Structures are given as structure tokens and as C-alpha cells.
Amino acid sequence: MDCIFCKIVHKEIPLENIAYEDDDVVVFKDHKPSAPVHYLSVPKEHIQSIMHLEENHKAIISKIIFAAKKVAKDLELKGYKLVFNVGREGGQVIDHLHLHLLGGWTKQEEIDHLPN
Ligand code: 5GP
Ligand code: ZN
Predict the structure, then answer these.
(1) How many folded domains does the chain comprise?
(2) What's the CA gap between 61 and 13, in Å, rounded?
(3) What's the gap in Å between 30 CA and the centre of ligand 1?
(4) Cα–Cα distance list, 9 to 63, 64, 88, 112 (Å)
(5) Which among 33, 46, 99, 100 has most CB atoms closer than 10 A?
(6) Which CATH number fits the domain that encloses residue 20?
(7) What is the reported pTM?
(8) What gap in Å lies between CA 83 and CA 49, rounded to an integer?
(9) Residue 8: HSE in the Cβ half-sphere, 13 Å Cα cutoff
């Protein structure tokens, strides 16, 4: 399957900036950050999107959230957003499930105007 995130998590493409990895999950830096801190928490298993989740995926969804939480703690973020884009109409471009970890804003002006 020609999936860029499968290639990344299985190390077929060299990847710097891995913040966390275990048997099931990799958290790596987004290459075009849309926040001062922007990581992607990605299951090694190929799941297309939240729309494609099945009952047996409950554990892996929990794992990608906990992995993002750990990275946020390691980076000493005091607050952050965790975002799933779901489907093209939801802004999803890469068809391999990923959780965006966004944060690092420091100016109150920016924080006041963050999108939901
Ligand atoms: P989506 O819009 O699908 O939720 O987000 C995909 C994200 O993956 C985007 O923020 C994009 O910058 C990031 N991305 C796409 N391709 C690569 C890549 O090859 N390496 C990294 N590190 N990030 C990528
Ligand atoms: Zn994939």
C-alpha cells in the first residue's frame, strides 16, 4: 500500500524528530507545523480515519492519546490541542489516522483567538 505514514512509522523513510515510540505508536514532528509545537501521534497499524474505526481499535485510540499526552508533558506544555481531522470535508489530507498535538502558544493575544 502506498501510504506515506506507513512508510514513516515502519522506517522505510528516514525520520528525525521522533518524540516517542513504542510497539504500537510513533509520535513525530509535523513537517509543516501549524503551531509553534506540532506533533503527530500515529498508530503503526494502518487505519484510514476515525470514520474507519472498528470496535477492536479502542485500545490503539487510547494509546495514541496517551502517547500525545506524554510528549506534551515531556515538552512541558501547559496547555495544548489534540485534533483529529476526519475525511476530506474535515480537512484530512493523509489517509492514515493521526492525532495532531498542537501547542506552544505564548502570547495571550494568540491564545485568545485559537480556533475551537
Ligand atoms: P491532515 O490534514 O491529514 O490531518 O494532516 C496531515 C499532516 O501531516 C499535515 O499537518 C502535514 O503537514 C503532515 N505531513 C504530511 N506529510 C508529512 C511527512 O512526510 N512528514 C511529516 N513529518 N509530516 C507530514
Ligand atoms: Zn498507512
Answers:
(1) 1
(2) 24
(3) 6
(4) 15, 13, 22, 35
(5) 99
(6) 3.30.428.10
(7) 0.97
(8) 12
(9) 24
Taking the C-alpha atoms of residue 59 and residue 42, their distance in angstroms, rounded to an integer, is 13
Q: Is residue 26 pLDDT above 90, yes or no?
A: yes
Q: Which atom of ligand 1 has the smallest separation from the CA of 85? A: 4
CA distance 76 to 85: 25
Contact 41, 25 (CB under 8 A): yes
Answer yes or no: is the C-beta of 93 below 6 A from any ligand 1 atom: yes
**For residue 98, which ligand has an atom nearest its CA?**
1
Beta-carbon contacts of residue 51 (< 8 Å; ≥ 6 apart): 86, 87
Q: Return the closest-CA partner of residue 88 out of 32, 45, 49.
A: 49
Q: Can you tell me which residue has the cell 494502518?
A: 46
Task: Convert the pLDDT of each residue in 49-85 to its tens digit.
Answer: 999 999 999 999 999 999 999 999 999 999 999 999 9
Average pLDDT over residues 98-116: 95
